[in-house]
Structures are given as structure tokens and as C-alpha cells.
Amino acid sequence: MSSQANRPDLSNLWMPFTANRQFKSHPRLLAKAKGMYYTSVEGKQILDGTSGLWCVNAGHGRQEIIDAITRQTTEMDYAPSFQIGHEDSFRAATAVARCMPEGMDRIFFTNSGSESADTALKIALAYHRARGEGHRTRFIGRERGYHGVGFGGISVGGISPNRRTFSPVLLPGVDHLPHTHDVSKNAFTRGLPEWGAHLADELERIVALHDPSTIAAVMVEPLAGSAGVLVPPKGYLERLRAITEKYGILLIFDEVITGFGRLGAATASELFGIKPDLITLAKGISNAAVPAGAVAVSREIHDAILEASSTGIEFFHGYTYSAHPLATAAMMATIDIYEREKLFARAATMAKPLEDAVHALKDSPHVIDIRNLGLVAGIELAPRPGAPGARATEVFQKCFDKGLMVRFTGDTIAMSPPLIIEDKHIDQIATTLAEVLKTID
């Protein structure tokens, strides 16, 4: 562990999505990671209850991924992806396609969920234009939705603080569905809530308001993670799919969080038996060992865009680091682990023990709701009068001090542990949370 004398100067780094002044007065610094645990700079073990940022699905420090990245580094550090390729970019696309619904096997590589979201929106526009419907330019998102931090993603997203500063220059022609969260109707539901499927019918109203011929796509998270673990009501996603198909509107599932086993299946699309038109991916695609993302696209959309151009570049979009050699190495090694160790099925098996453990906290102080699906759980606390988010912030800090890393958003504590979690880790999560909640005013 680093000594106090060797600690870095904290002043130069402007940290993302962080209360910088507060953090730098009481820093929480990590030094190592292996399996289910981080190690702090002080040498303390921290159980990772959040898979880093919803992304280290196979656990930390997987040797197979390390070896793959190391080999690639020595062979070729970088290859351009414009008009030139490298073999592993094609192999990685095939590996990702194996995890996607049938027919959604055209893979466009990005470097993050934010890039995947904006890429999917551009693909939707390009598809309609290719079919002679360039007037379809409007996007429909959802309140409390999170689709990264690009201008497209925050325009379609519906988290107010993410939008507020930039609202004058967000994409025009965007509307939003209502969110589905209602504690008065669905508090302490295990799995999918019974109430709320009718909220999808708001799309019919929006379509009528704007004219369906103007709408390009609807973009939603099957399970909204960053807004506080908002689980879809029974039948809700099915209604969205039916309405979008009725009007020729594309349906984009943002599966940056739910992709690669988080809900006990390869994708939420597989879990719910719903095939969208595009799926955005990142996080678990590479086990977070190298930044990576992708958009899985149906063959129909891919082929329509390519066939609309007789020669030359068909889709004017991409990134310098699309299909970076280190990222493709990490993705292939990661997916190999998922398949070999059957981690998606393991997540499904461990979902019930996690559900039971978190719902046992129902009578803890300040708890007003508990939500869960797969290996995701959220515990919502009553906000302090005049200080929303303060209770959850304190829980987060005290849990870290007790050796447990959770996340908080508003007054919701979120958990999304690695898929390799064991019963003993679930017990530690529940015990630590119970102890901390007793100490919170």
C-alpha cells in the first residue's frame, strides 16, 4: 500500500459525477482489486457490491482477460478501424453476436455506453432516411431514463440534473414517456410489479400528438439502473414493443447495464422474450478491463442502410478507438468466461438469495421501498426534510468505512454485485446494510 508520503496530489483531477470538494476532504481511494473485493490504499478489503460501476460482471482481476490483453499489447497496440481492419475486430463481433437475440447480429463497436446511445440514435435516423422516410427525426425517451452523457443520450434521457445545465442546446423534437415508479402502488415488490403496464399506453398519446410519421425511435432501459433500480411492470415492455411495431417506430433497448448476465440472461431482451430493433451495450461487454461498447443491430436495419448507398461509405460515423485491439481481446476473453463458467445462469440462481436478503431489511429505519430483479437491488429511503439524498449519501459513506461498496442515487441505495457472488457475500451485504441503517438519523 502507498505510504502517506507517496499519496498523489488530489487537486488536478476534476472527478466525474462527484462532489469534488467533499471527496477531497475525505477521499476514498482504491489500490487493488481481485475477485469480489477491492483493497483500499490503507490495506482494507472492500466487498464490491456494485461490480465497480455495474460493469465488472465476472469479478475483478480475471487472469484470462489479463493474459489476452497482455498478448495483444505485445502483438499490436493499435489498429485503425476506418477502411482498415484487424482480424480480432471481426472475431469479437461474432462473440458479441452470440449473446444477442437471433437476427441482431450486426455489431457496431464503440468505447462506452454514452457512445453506444448516440450511435444507436444515429443508426435509427440513417435507417429511416435509407427507406425514404427522412421525416422521421423525433425521439421518445422516458422520465428518469439514463442513456449516458452525450448530447443525444441526455436529450432522450430523463434525469433532470443531467439535463439542466445543457437544456438550451439539447436535441430538438424529443418527448418523454412517464416513468413507472410509484411507491404507493408497488412498494416492496419482489421482481416485476403488478401495477404500471398501462403507462406504456402513454406512447399512443405521444404518437397522436406528434404524428407517427415523424417519430424515429423510442429508447428505454428495460430496467432503469442509474435512476434508482426501476423495475418494469409486468407487460409494460411488451406494450411498448407492440405500439412501436404498429407505427413503424424503432425500439431501442439500452442494455448497457442489463446486458451480459445482470438479470440472469444474456440480455433483458432474452429474459423478457422481446426483440427490439437495436440494443446498446457496454460495461460487462469487456468486464470493464478495457473501455468498450457496442450497438447490436438487426440485419434488416443494417442491410437497409448499406443497400441505400451503391458505392462508398454507407454510414458516416465511427470512433478512432472503435474495435481497439486491446478492447477486442478483452471482450473475447470476457465472453469466453461467461460461456465457460455459465455465469448468466449463475446470476439467475443467485438472484433469489439476494432478493431474500435485501427484502429482510424491510423493517430497517427509514426504508420505504425495496426493489429487485436478477442481481440488481435497490433500497429506497425516506428523504430527510429539506435534504434529499443526504440519508443515502451517509449510508454509502458508512458502508464503505465498514468494508462494503454500494451506490446511491437520490435516496436509493443500489446494489449490482459481480455474477460470481456467493452466499457469504450476500450475507455480508445484508448484515452491513442492516448495521449502518440503524445508525442513520
CATH class descriptor of the largest domain: Alpha Beta
Spans of 5+ residues with little confidence (pLDDT < 50)? Answer: none
Number-wise, the strands total: 15
Which radius of gyration do the C-alpha atoms yield? Answer: 22 Å
Predict the CATH topology of the largest domain: Aspartate Aminotransferase, domain 2
Beta percentage is 15-25%
Structural class of the helices, strands and pairings? alpha/beta
The helix tally amounts to 16
Tell me the helix content: 25-40%
Concise summary:
The protein is of the alpha/beta class.
Structure description:
This protein is α/β, with parallel strands linked by helices. The protein folds into two domains: 4-58 and 342-437, Aspartate Aminotransferase, domain 1 (Alpha-Beta Complex); 66-340, Aspartate Aminotransferase, domain 2 (3-Layer(aba) Sandwich), CATH 3.40.640.10. It has 16 helices and 15 strands. Strands 4-10-9-8-7-5-6 form a seven-stranded mixed sheet, with helices on both faces. The chain has a four-stranded mixed sheet with strand order 1-2-3-13. The protein is globular. The two termini are 34 Å apart. 48% of the residues are buried. The model has no long low-confidence stretch (mean pLDDT 97).
